[in-house]
Amino acid sequence: MKNISEISLEKIDSILEKSKIELKKVFGKNLKKIIFYGSYARNEEKDGSDIDIMALADINRIDLSKYRDKISDIMVELSLEFDLLVSITEINIDDFNNFIEYIPFYETVEEEGIELYAS
């Protein structure tokens, strides 16, 4: 018999793997990095916590916004399938790297995040 923490770990692993597959489909060769961050990545989740994922792509900001509907579809699909809120943020990789020391959110993701994919 599995305990709750084992089930949660399996669920999280499945969410992360499926998100990686779907983000690769959406961004193709332009996907440069996927980072799992936030309370689940730190093992500090509580009731109501979401799974936080950042996709870093080599696509300019204006064009990146055109992917928002596809990313929203992935979030909804995964959230419904696993009964757990999934949040995906897409950011231009150059913006992330250039502004990491100026934007505390980027710095936190870099320091605490878990890299799921890099190309």
From TrEMBL:
Highest taxon of the lineage: Bacteria
Protein name: Polymerase beta nucleotidyltransferase domain-containing protein
Domain (Polymerase beta nucleotidyltransferase): residue spans on this chain: 23-86
InterPro entries linked: NT_sf, Polbeta, Type_VII_TA_antitoxin
Gene Ontology molecular function terms on file: nucleotidyltransferase activity
Lineage, uppermost ranks: Bacteria, Fusobacteriati, Fusobacteriota, Fusobacteriia, Fusobacteriales
Source organism of this protein record: Haliovirga abyssi
Gene3D superfamilies according to UniProt: Beta Polymerase, domain 2 (3.30.460.10)
